[in-house]
Specification:
Elements (H helix, E strand, L loop, with lengths): L3 E5 L11 H9 L2 E4 L2 H10 L6 E3 L5 H13 L4 E3 L13 H9 L3 E5 L4 H9 L7 E5 L4 H9 L8 E5 L4 H12 L3 E6 L7 E6 H10 L7 E5 L12 H13 L4 H12 L3 H13 L1
Parallel strand pairs: 1-4, 1-5, 2-3, 2-4, 6-7
Antiparallel strand pairs: 7-10, 8-9, 8-10
């Protein structure tokens, strides 16, 4: 049998969340390429695995890809893991997988834990599909532009975020998507696992008040409600906006009111409202 690259999912927190097949592959492979050898050794220690580890992360992935291909050409299998969850899902590994495939070797997935799927299930938000955006751009403008493409999508939006940016991101989600149901999933499968479910505005206020939020964060936001895909009645929006202007509302306050009344995010309304306001 030709050599293979195995993409092996590992636990996102609880080390019991691994599979028998994953353990076998990690033991039998000629080498295991991992994001951080210190993290992977904890898993190896728990299951008494002794194998060669190759450090392979975003800063040396191109160089180590050639090392991995060399092992495959010599007839050995290689297992690829990251610090937690499924490799390639907002994690390093795609360069390795792409090059290995180009060389004609099989790339074989070994399914298992995923913070993305854990959060979707724990959110209690219904879904038949979902939009996964990975880690958000740090610049507010770029993040809002990405979100604006999914304002009318009926599918939940799932993103990864750092603890320090969670409150600001929740506020941006509210501005762009409207005040939808959402869940903030923190430290999934770990000792201090927490799932906070509420509206985006409530969650934004909650996390703004918290100090020293820690752990890995996954945010799940409900999709647009049925009927939201219909084109908004611009004449009605224009009429309401001009009413607010006549009443003495500032542009910012009027935009906030329109967003609340229509269920549309402020960013989605902004260009239209600015054009009407200036006439």
């Amino acid at each position: 049998m030709a050599s293979r690259l195995y993409i092996v999912a590992t636990p996102v927190g609880n080390l019991e969340d691994t599979t028998l097949r994953a353990l076998r592959i990690l033991k039998e492979a000629a080498a295991v390429a991992c994001e951080d050898t210190r993290v992977t050794r904890k898993l190896f220690s728990r299951y008494e695995i002794k194998n060669r580890l190759i450090s392979c992360h975003e800063h040396n992935e191109e160089k180590q890809t050639e090392t991995i291909i060399g092992i495959l050409k010599d007839g050995g299998d290689v297992a690829l893991v990251t610090d937690a969850g499924t490799p390639l899902v907002s994690d390093p590994g795609y360069r390795v997988a792409a090059r290995v495939a180009e060389e004609g070797f099989d790339v074989v997935p070994i399914p298992g834990a995923s913070a993305l799927l854990c959060a979707l299930c724990a959110s209690a938000i219904p879904f038949s599909g979902f939009v996964f955006l990975g880690f958000f751009p740090r610049q507010k403008g770029k993040a809002a532009k990405v979100l604006s493409e999914f304002v009318l999508s009926p599918h939940p939006v799932v993103i990864y975020e750092s603890p320090k940016r969670t409150a600001k991101t929740l506020a941006l989600l509210r501005e762009t998507l409207g005040d939808r149901a959402a869940a903030v999933c923190r430290e999934m499968t770990k000792l201090h696992e927490e799932v906070s479910r509420a509206s985006l505005s409530s969650l934004a206020e909650d996390f703004k008040k918290r100090e020293n939020v820690k752990g890995e964060i996954v945010i799940v936001v409900a999709g647009a409600e049925e009927g939201a895909s219909d084109e908004p009645d611009e004449k009605e929006l224009e009429k309401r906006l001009l009413e607010l202007k006549k009443q003495g509302a500032t542009f910012t306050d009027a935009l906030k009111t329109m967003s609340s009344e229509s269920g549309m995010g402020k960013n989605a309304l902004y260009d239209f409202a600015l054009k009407v306001w200036g006439n």
